[in-house]
Amino acid sequence: MQQGHTVYFKNKPKIVATGTVAGPKECAGVAGRYVDYPLGDDMFGEETFERAERKMLLTALECAVRKAKLAQSEVDAIVSGDLLNQIISASFAARETGLPFLGIYSACSTMSEALLLAAVLTDGGYAENVAAATGSHFSSAERQYRYPLELGTTRPPQSQWTVTGAGCAMVSRAGSGPVITCGTVGRVIDYGVSDVNNMGAAMAPAAADTILMHLRDTGRDPSYYDLILTGDLGALGSRLVKELTYEQGADISANHVDCGEIVYRVREDEFQGGSGAGCSAVILNSYIYDKLTGSGNIRRVLFAATGALLSTVSSGQGETIPCIAHAVAIERDAPAEAES
Amino acid sequence: MQQGHTVYFKNKPKIVATGTVAGPKECAGVAGRYVDYPLGDDMFGEETFERAERKMLLTALECAVRKAKLAQSEVDAIVSGDLLNQIISASFAARETGLPFLGIYSACSTMSEALLLAAVLTDGGYAENVAAATGSHFSSAERQYRYPLELGTTRPPQSQWTVTGAGCAMVSRAGSGPVITCGTVGRVIDYGVSDVNNMGAAMAPAAADTILMHLRDTGRDPSYYDLILTGDLGALGSRLVKELTYEQGADISANHVDCGEIVYRVREDEFQGGSGAGCSAVILNSYIYDKLTGSGNIRRVLFAATGALLSTVSSGQGETIPCIAHAVAIERDAPAEAES
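Predict the joint structure of the above. Result:
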C-alpha cells in the first residue's frame, strides 16, 4: 500500500447518507432513536429468518439511496456481504436492485471492508456513488453457527448476542458528509483461541493489530481521534484490545468504544453484548453518523470492525479462529484552518 | 462507473506472473503441461479435503510471488475467496502469509472479481502488487453442496464436475505482462432456474448480460477479442450463452471458449465439463496465460467468469438461483502502432 498497510484518499470520498433497520431488542438500546426503520417484529413480515435478513439489507440500501437523493440507477455499485453461507442476504438483496454488485466476505468486519472498497472505487474515479452495506439476524446466525433456537441451549457468560439489523452507507465523490480520509487493510491474526463462544477474546488481537498498524502508518496518536470504534468485541474483548494496544505503547482507553458493548441494555442473555455484521453497521450508520454530522460533537472516528473467519467445518476439524480487522478513518470535512 | 458498468484502467495494471496447482484429473486435460504444481494425489499430503484445498491456494499464491520475483512483503494485499462456507480456504491461506487480506465472495466468478479489484487497487495507486487468487476442491464442494461422497449418488447428465485446483495472478503496476485494460462489474441475474444440478443453464444469462454490457459500454465488436472466455458454464451453458448473446445482436460463436468445457477429457461422470472457482483460475492462469505471453498467439481476452450465488439453505427454502458474471479485458501490452 502507499504507506505500510494504509491507503490514503485524496479526493474526499464522503458518506453522504446512511440507511438503517433494526429489530425491537436493538431499538430498545442506544441507537433506537436514530434507526430509520425500527421493527416491531424481527420477522419483518417474512416467513423465514433468512428472508427477513435480506429484506432488512435491501430496505437499508433503498433508504440510503433515497436519503442521498439519488435515483437508484445512479448507484454505480453495491459492495456488500453478510454472515450467511454464500452471502445469500447480500446476493439476493442485490438481485432486487439490478445494480452492479461486488460480493465480499469479512464476517463481522464486513462494514469496514465495504467502506474501504467503496472509498477506493469512488476516490480512484472508478465510480461516483457506491453503496456499502451489511446486516445480520440473530435467528439465522444462531441456526447456522450454533444450535436450533427450539433447542433452548444455555448460553455461556462469555457469549454475545447477534444483532438483528442492517446498515448501508452511500459513499460518493460529490455531495457533502463526513469524509473517509484513509483506510488500513487488516491481516489475518490468530492467537490460538478455539472457543466459538468467546469471539471477543479471539478477535481482540486482530483489532489491536490493525489499530496499531494504522497509528504507526499515519504517525497519529490515539488522541487524534475522538472515537476509536470497534465492531463487536463485546465487554471482555474491549478490555482485551485496550490492554493489547497499551502493551504496545498506544493508550486508547480514553476514546475507545465498542459497538457490541453499547448496542444493548444488557439484562438477560446478551452477556458480553452484541455481535454480528449488523452490529457495527447499525451503530455506525445511525447513532455515530448522527454525531458526525449536523450538530453532533464527534469530528474524527477510526472505525475498526473485526471479523472472526471461522466456519462450523473449520471448528469441527479442530482449527483455531483466524480473525481480521479493517479500519477506516472518517472525518468531518472541515477546512484545515478551522482546526486548532 | 465511468461508462455504464465498465471501469477503465489508465495505468496499465499487469499480470506479471501466475501460479497454479491442479489435481491429477485436471492435469490429464488441456492445462496439464502448463500447471506449476501438478498433483499426483488430490489430498496434497493433508488429512482433510478442506486442508488440501487451502494448501493448494497457498501454494499457488507463493508460486506467483516467486515467479514475479517479489519478496512476500512486497505484496500489498491478497484479494481472494472460495466456495466454502465463510471462505475458509482463502482466510486460512492468508493467515499463513501475514499479508493484508481482502476477502471476497462471488462463487465461481471469484477469479474475475479478484482480478477486477486487484486492477482497481494497483491502477488507482493504492497498491503496487496485489495477489488475486482462488481455488476449489471436488471433494470439499461435493460434501458441502451436495451429498457425502461415500453415498455414491448418481449424477444427472446436466451436472458438472468441480475442479480440484487453485490459481493466483500477481497484478502489479511495474513489470511486464498482459495488461488488464478494463473491467465490467456484473449484476445479479436470475432467470428462475432452480435445478442445482444444472448450473450452466442458471449461469448463462448472467454471462450473456455482462458480455453484452461490456460490448455496449466499450463500443467493441466481439471480434475485437481473440477469445471471449467464460468460467464454468460447461457444454450446455456454453451453447446457451452463444444463443442469448446472438439474440441480442452479438455473435460470439467464433471466439467463445468456456474453461469448464475444455478442462477435462470428458469420459465418465464429468458430463457437461468442469466447474468451481478453481476451474477458470487454473485454465486462465496456466494455459491461457501462456498463450497471452511469450510466443503465444492470443493478444486480447475478455475473461468473464460466472458465479451461482445459491446456498443449500436458499435452495432448501425454494429459491431460484441468482447468478453473476464479472469481466476483465486482458490484452498484450503492445504499442498501438504495432496493431493493424
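Residues 335-340 of chain A have pLDDT under 50 and may be disordered.
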